Amino acid sequence: MFPKNSNRLLPFAFCLLLFAFYWACGEKYPLPNIPNDPNSGLNAAGDTLYLQLTPVWNAANGYNFKAPEDVYADKDGLDPFVYVADTGNDRVVMMTPAGRVLGSISIPHPTALTQDRNFNLLVVNNTNRIYKINLVAANHVIAAAPVDTVKNLIQLDHPEWQFTGIAAYEDFRYYVTRTDASGAASAIISFSGDNNYEGPLPLVANGTGLLATARPSAIVAERLDGISFIFAQIGNNSFKVQWLTTSSDIGFVPKIHPSSDPESESVDLFRAGKFRQPEDVAVDRANNLLVIDAASDSLFRFNSGGTEDPAVSFGGSGNGERQFRHPMGVAWSDRTVYVADTGNNRIVRFQLSTELP
């Protein structure tokens, strides 16, 4: 007799078997050159800070990414793979965490992606449609996976809509961040598990305060914590990164609040000028919030109360170690931070010095 939650464990077991299959049976896709340099990026291992892992997934090491704008890795560990929105090459790439390329599938100009609990990849590309890649139907061979285009009647009526970010929640439902050329359509909209458009969340469009959206750029949801999500926005809003949850009495409420004491300094997350162009957000297992800012070429980390650890946050313009050029995507899985370093045509990975082997 199976345990009560065995139905939720079966996909996990399937992915583990699949992962072992890929490694045991060889690979038809070319394996990039991976240099054997385990000491690279470890020159400050005595401090608690993010250290860059080798190899960098760039052209010098055999990866031909072109302006990748997003990277996805399952925080809960149910899917052991990493997915890259390789925007300039019009494809989504499937990889192992060690950097082994398993294949790709053509999607026009993908800019953001996530995954639901059926192992479907959900992709948006700044149009008014959503692409759904069914990995299970193709036994996780991404090049053979069927692709469904989600475009309901309400979407057909609004060709000006631009979907900029996507996040799955409650197993199979998902949120999408929406804007248009003017920003007037700014909203977070909800879709049901059968891809039905449910409408926008009750947030103020083009507002400047909390519970308002102004050209939202990204969203990430907590599947196992009720209705809880974080979104970033690049429009004229003083609260450019907001973490919202729900109250049984009044609906959506901020999970992180600015200081209520006018004589005290505001929470770091809401400090004036902290963000210039926050393009993506992620959450680690300890509920630390990661924000990538394309304009300042920086990665910021805040705890669940919105306090920043400036020793852990880092950045700088360039293509060297711990530097970025217009980064657009960030993800966290198994102690590793993945950054889509768009302007440098690469994916870079980091781990805390205290968590390295």
Describe this structure in words.
The protein is mainly beta and 357 residues long. It has a single domain (6-352), classed as TolB, C-terminal domain (Neuraminidase). The chain is built from two helices and 26 strands. The chain has helices at 6-24, 153-156, and strands at 50-52, 70-73, 82-86, 91-95, 101-106, 112-115, 120-124, 130-134, 147-150, 162-169, 173-179, 187-191, 197-200, 204-205, 212-213, 216-221, 228-233, 241-247, 251-254, 278-283, 289-293, 298-302, 314-315, 329-333, 336-341, 346-352. The strands form seven sheets. It has a four-stranded antiparallel β-sheet with strand order 1-26-25-24, with no helix packed on it. Strand 7 (120-124) and strand 8 form a beta hairpin. The chain is globular. It starts with 5 loop residues before the first helix and ends in a 5-residue tail after the last strand. Mean pLDDT is 87; it is low at 1-10, 19-31 and 33-46.
- Computed over alpha carbons, the radius of gyration is 20 Å
The CATH homologous superfamily is named TolB, C-terminal domain
Spatial strand order of the main sheet:
1-26-25-24
Largest sheet: 4 strands, antiparallel
Total strand count, please? 26
The CATH class, by name, is: Mainly Beta
Task: Supply the helix-strand structural class.
Answer: mainly beta
Q: What percent of residues are in strands?
A: 35-45%
Number of helical segments? 2
Q: State the oligomer.
A: single chain
CATH architecture: 6 Propeller
Write down the overall geometry.
Answer: globular
